[in-house]
Structures are given as C-alpha cells and as structure tokens.
Automatic annotation (TrEMBL), chain A:
Signal peptide as annotated in the record: none
Residue ranges constituting the Response regulatory domain according to the UniProt record: 5-122
Protein name, entry field: Response regulator
Entry-annotated residues carrying 4-aspartylphosphate: 57
SUPFAM superfamilies: CheY-like
Alphabetical list of Pfam families matching this protein: Response_reg
Record-level GO BP terms: phosphorelay signal transduction system
Keyword field: Phosphoprotein
Source organism of this protein record: Candidatus Viridilinea halotolerans
UniProt xrefs under InterPro entries: Bact_response_regulator (IPR050595), CheY-like_superfamily (IPR011006), Sig_transdc_resp-reg_receiver (IPR001789)
UniProtKB/TrEMBL annotation, chain B:
Residue runs in coiled coils: 4-31
Gene source species: Candidatus Viridilinea halotolerans
Keywords from the named record: ATP-binding, Coiled coil, Kinase, Nucleotide-binding, Phosphoprotein, Transferase, Two-component regulatory system
Name of the molecule in the record: histidine kinase
CDD domains recorded: HisKA (cd00082)
Catalytic activity: ATP + protein L-histidine = ADP + protein N-phospho-L-histidine
EC class: transferase
The keyword Transmembrane helix is annotated on this UniProt entry: no
Recorded GO MF terms: ATP binding; phosphorelay sensor kinase activity
Length: 147, 468
C-alpha cells in the first residue's frame, strides 16, 4: 500500500500524463501518483480524505481548477496544494496567494527539479491525521455534483 | 454878394460832405483793416487746426494727444488763462482730468466739463451764464476748493464736448481771464473742430489698442490651441502605440502560455526516455541536442512573455560603442554581400550607461538590417556616436546616428514607422521598429527618423547617460 497519494488536476492530457509518469518514476513505489479525471473527481478524493498532495494547473480559460483550489484551501486546509501552471502570470500568482497556496511553480519545469519539491512538501507537511472539515453535502465544484 | 455867399455855403457844404466822406472812408479803412486782421487770424487758426490734425493723426498715445491738444488750445485762443481736458472712464460715468495747461487748475472745470460732456456742441459761457452754471453747484464747495482765485471763477469759458458719433468721451474746457470778455461766438467752430479732432484721434488710438489686444489675444489663443493640439496628437500617438503594444504583449503572453504545456511535456518526455536508455547509448547525443533546443524555445518563450517587464537584474553598465561595434561585426558578411560600405565614427568620450545590453543590441541590429534592406544595390552605412552635453553640470545624452544612402522612407510612412504591425516590406512583421522604439523608451531615450525619398534615412537614438 503506497504511503502517499498525489492527485494531479491538469486539463492538458499530455502534460498531466507526463507529470504523473515522471513523478511516479522519480518518486518510486511509496508514492501513488494519479491524474484526476476532472476537478470534481479530485475534489471528491480530497473530501473523502485520501489525498496527501494536490497538484493543480489553474487554467485561466475555465474556473473549475481555481474553484477546486479554493475549496481545498477552505475546507481541507491540511491538504497541501502545489500549483504547477503553464499560465504563470503576476495575476495568477496573486490569486493563488489569496487562496494561501504557498507552493507555486511554472511550467516548463524539469521533472528533475519538480520531484524534490514534491518530496519536500510531503515530508514537511504530511498530515498525521486527516482532519475533517465542514459538511460536504452543500459543496460542489463548478456547480455540478461530483460523480 | 449873394453869389459869394452862395459859393461860401456851397464850399461849406462841400467841406462838410468831404468830412463825412473822409469819415466814411476812414471807417471803411478801419473796417477793412479789421476784416483783414480777422481773416489773418482765421487763416492762422485754420493752419493751426490743420497742423494739430496732422499731429493728432500720427500720435499713438492718448496722453501725448491730450497734452498736445491743451498746449495748442492755449495758442489757438489767445488770452486763454487755462485749458483743461477731461476724459470719461471706461464705464462712462466718471470724468477725470487728463491734461491741463498754463496757469494752474480750477475745480470749476469739473462742473463745466460735466456740462460740456452732455452738450451736443461747443458752448460759450459768459459772465451771467457761467455764474448760473456754477451756481448749480454748492457755492461753498467752490469757494473752498478753488485755489487759484485770480482766474477763478473765470469771466467766460469755452466748452467743447469730445464725442465720436454718439459716444461721449470727455470734454475740453477753456477759461478766459477774469477781466474782460475774451471769447467770441466765432471761436465756437474752432473749439468744435478742436474737440472733434481730439475725439477722433483718441478714439483711433483706443481702437488701435483694442485691436492690438484682440490680435494678441487671438495669437495667444491660437498658440494655446496649437499646443493643445500637439499635446493631443502626442497623447493619441502614445495611446495608439501602447494599445498596439499591449495587444502584442497580450498575444505573445497567451502564445507563451499555450506553448508551456507542450514544451513541458516534450522536455520531460525526453528526460524520461533518457532515464530508460543505457548510459553509453549513442542516442544520448541526439537527446541532448533535443533538450538543448527545447531549452532555447523555453528561453524565447520567456523573453516573449517578459517583453513588457524587462527585469532590473539585466541592467548593467554598457558601452554603446562596444555594442555598435559588435553589431557591425555581426552583420559584416551581410554588409559585404550587399556591397555596403560601413563607416563607424564612434566618439571615444561616450561613457558607459546603465542599460539592457541585449535589448539595445536588438535595437541597433534592427535598424542596421533595415538600413541594409533599404540599399539593395549597395551604398554607405554610417554609424556615429556623440556625447551631447550642453553644460558641464547638465545631464549628458548619448546621440547615436545610423544613416544609410538607400531608397529612403516615403513621407506617408514616416509618421507610422514606429507603430506595431506597420510594415512596407512584403516579408516584414511590422514589429521590428515598434519593439526598438519600445526598448529605447524603456531606457528613457528617444528614437526619431529623418528621411527624404531617394536620399536615404537617418535614425537618431538619444539615450540619457545614467549611472545608477
């Protein structure tokens, strides 16, 4: 059983796959790196409490990823969020700071550099006990209920 | 005897008639003399009036006119004790004494002037009329204020209203001496003429002053208008420039963002492949080249994205001369192929300045390549630098002049040369000079172009020398 679960939310399938395959290769068997099929799916995973790190690219063309980041930071503050974005801009950085996302890297970063960052986050902030936030019944991301 | 007596009486009669005739003759002679004197006097007065009118017409100043008039009035009417000239103020309700001649002043003047201003024509006031006129006023006031008792109250006075058409301007008052009746009704036309002349002359001066003021106001308004127009044009040009640059910036930023994902995937795929093949595999060389080239793309993308925010870190003390020399070296082959003869006149006194060397190099390269394009059949390329300093303590400027002998820029292209997407070349993007201008502006400099069609073009870049 892998010790750590990492979820990736990226609407660019190739980039998502490379992140997943790369991190899985570099980090080894103790980590389970998964690509969430949608921001909603990632949110459900976070809400049920088996996510140790969420890697998100908040695509400016849609709101879902950003809403996911906000929801996680609000209702699951114990889950660390790493923003890995191709859309680096002062505006996005500021927005992510508002959501108190401390870790932010811009693509095209080398996996060689990304892996140690992920490693460091998980070792520094691994939640010992999964904290349970407010009721989830009223919550949904981008207006549609998760499947 | 009776005949003798008859003769005697006849003689007496004849003598009496002779006496009468002689008396009559003498009277006629006297009258003739008087008429002659009068005509002489009239002649003198007419010529005086004429000379006054000539003098008034060339006068340019109200004070000069009124002084001249009062002096001439003294001469024109012999026996005059004093002459005063009053003018109404702008509102036309207060009279003020503007000029006086001869023996002091008299407050009666005000009273008489007020009378004169209202009168349609010249007036002669003698003893009783004058007293009546003056009695309209408080006698005590007169007695108190009249300092010159010897000619005040005057025995008679001539009053001339100054008016042009129906506009009242003031009045001229002439005082006779206290002893005898000095003025005669026949003086009235002269007073009238003098007053009219004065009024016309003053009116002309005032009109001229008004015209000058209006003209100055007009010129001022026009220059203000031109200035405002120029400012507006500059602002509009700047707005257009920044709007277009913003569009370029947005476009390049969005392109850069879209490229980041595939770039990230490609680079890291290569990396993962690299991990999987044996360390001595010859394919490593190709993978390294691919990695290197993808790295280059990444740097280009970053530059594209950062077009709008040159980082402070890249600013360093830079020698413009060195940059120009390097750039010329860079295009050496290009110049040789194009039969272009490059002449560099680089002033060794040009100091280092804090600048973004790569960006400036881009500017110089851009302009030099443009110059080459403008000389398809060869020509001269002159690159000159100069330290411009007006005073030793004034901030210095580096002048960079890049001149070619090419086809020149058509005048209709000149105003748009630095606008993004404006190009006259089939292969041009219209961004080279826009980016150059942007870079120069980012360095607080200015870039201008002078060109005459067929005579080549000269680009001038002025960069401030800054040490910080």
């Amino acid at each position: 059983m892998p010790a750590w679960q990492i979820y990736i939310v990226d609407d660019d399938p190739a980039a998502a796959m490379i992140t997943q395959r790369g991190l899985q290769t570099l980090l080894g068997e103790r980590f389970s790196v998964m690509v969430a099929s949608s921001p909603n799916a990632a949110w459900l995973a976070c809400a049920t409490g088996n996510v140790d790190l969420l890697i998100v690219d908040p695509n400016p063309h849609g709101n879902a990823a950003a809403s996911l980041v906000r929801a996680v930071r609000t209702f699951r503050p114990a889950i660390p969020v790493l923003v890995l974005t191709a859309y680096d801009s002062p505006g996005l950085r500021m927005k992510m700071r508002e959501f108190s996302v401390a870790r932010y890297v811009a693509k095209p970063i080398d996996l060689r550099e990304l892996a140690p960052i992920v490693h460091a986050i998980l070792h520094a902030e691994r939640p010992l006990v999964a904290t349970v936030g407010p009721s989830l019944t009223a919550l949904s991301v981008s207006g549609s209920s998760g499947k | 005897m009776s005949e003798l007596e008859q003769l005697h009486s006849h003689i007496r009669d004849l003598e009496e008639r002779l006496l009468v005739a002689e008396a009559h003759a003498a009277k006629l002679v006297a009258e003739a003399e008087q008429q002659r004197m009068r005509s002489l006097e009239l002649g003198a007065r007419l010529s005086a009036i004429l000379s006054i009118s000539a003098a008034l017409l060339i006068s340019r100043d109200v004070d000069a006119i009124v002084q001249l008039v009062v002096q001439e009035a003294m001469d024109l009417f012999p026996g005059t004790n004093a002459v005063q000239l009053f003018l109404l103020d702008h509102e036309g309700d207060r009279l003020s004494l503007r000029a006086a001649a001869a023996n002091g002043e008299c407050r009666c003047g005000h009273v008489l002037a007020e009378l004169a201003v209202l009168s349609p024509r010249a007036m002669l006031l003698t003893g009783p009329q004058l007293e009546t006129a003056l009695q309209c006023r408080n006698a005590a006031e007169l007695g108190l204020t009249c300092a010159a008792q010897e000619f005040c109250p005057p025995s008679n006075a001539l009053l001339g209203p100054l008016r042009v058409e129906s506009t009242r301007m003031g009045a001229i008052v002439l005082y006779g001496g206290p002893q005898a009746t000095l003025y005669h009704p026949r003086d009235l036309p002269f007073v009238q003429a003098l007053a009219d002349l004065t009024a016309v002359a003053i009116d002309e001066v005032l009109q001229r002053v008004r015209a000058t003021t209006l003209q100055r106001d007009l010129a001022l308004t026009q220059s203000l208008h031109a200035e405002a127009q120029a400012r507006l044009n500059t602002a509009q040009a700047q707005l257009l420039q920044s709007a277009k640059l913003a569009a370029v910036g947005e476009l390049s930023a969005s392109v850069a963002h879209e490229i980041n994902n595939p770039l990230y995937a490609a680079r890291n795929s290569l990396y993962l492949v690299e991990q999987d093949i044996a360390a001595d595999d010859p394919q490593h060389a190709f993978l390294a080249i691919a990695q290197q080239e993808l790295g280059r793309i990444a740097r280009i993308i970053t530059r594209m994205r950062d077009f709008y925010r040159p980082t402070k870190a890249e600013l360093a003390a830079t020698s413009v001369n060195t940059l120009l020399r390097e750039t010329l070296e860079l295009v050496q082959t290009h110049l040789r192929h194009g039969h272009i003869h490059a002449i560099a006149n680089l002033d060794p006194d040009v100091p280092f300045t804090v600048a973004h060397a790569d960006q400036l190099r881009q500017v110089f390269l851009n302009i030099i390549l443009n110059a080459c394009d403008a000389m398809p059949h060869g020509g001269d390329l002159q690159v000159t630098t100069q330290l411009l300093q007006t005073r030793p303590d004034a901030p210095a400027t580096i002048g960079i002049y890049i001149a070619d002998t090419g086809i020149g820029v058509p005048p209709e292209h000149l105003p748009h040369l630095f606008e993004p997407f404006y190009t006259s070349k089939a292969q041009g993007t219209g961004l080279g000079l826009a980016i150059s201008a942007h870079i120069v502006t980012q360095h607080s400099g200015r870039i201008t172009v002078e060109s005459e069609q067929g005579q080549g073009a000269t680009f001038t870049i002025l960069l401030p020398v800054n040490g910080d």
